[in-house]
# Entry
Amino acid sequence: MPLLDHSLLRKVASKLREAPSYSEKDMTSSILKLAASSYGFGPSEEITVPTGFDPQAAALFEAMVESAYLVANADGDFDSAERSTFEHVVIAACEGAVAERQVHALVSDLHDQLVEDGADKRVKMVAKTVTKPEHAREILRVAALLAQASGGVSDQERLLMDKLAAAVGLDRGSVDTALREVDRAMAD
# Structure
């Protein structure tokens, strides 16, 4: 992976925090950022009082990160530098809602699951978590933005995004929409 421009990484993280241009007017944060808040409050054996943890939101956060992870791995080239960049951008996008150790552990789990199950099964598992069209669109947008951080969307990554779209009930045009959204966001 080539050396990356840190200003690009900051911009991608910033855009991951923002609501997409096609979202409702009163939305100011992305679904990723909102779900991260719950994920960061994950249940702990030490906590016995209510924490604000929402298991569905936490599962959605994991699904969004996994979809981007699957896309990043689609070309078979996901070395330690790309993994570190991926984790850094996710952490920055969450603005402290998710700890570095949590993201590192999640990415380690995603790696193990991908090796064990393969991409097609993991795409199906992501799709099981997605219950709303706006969540499905956000999964594609997050994957496209994180792919942008590593040099753009390759043909293999595009094919995996098409599989994700189909699995979550969106048409192929939804991938085009996500990619246009990313192009607009990066042009700002």
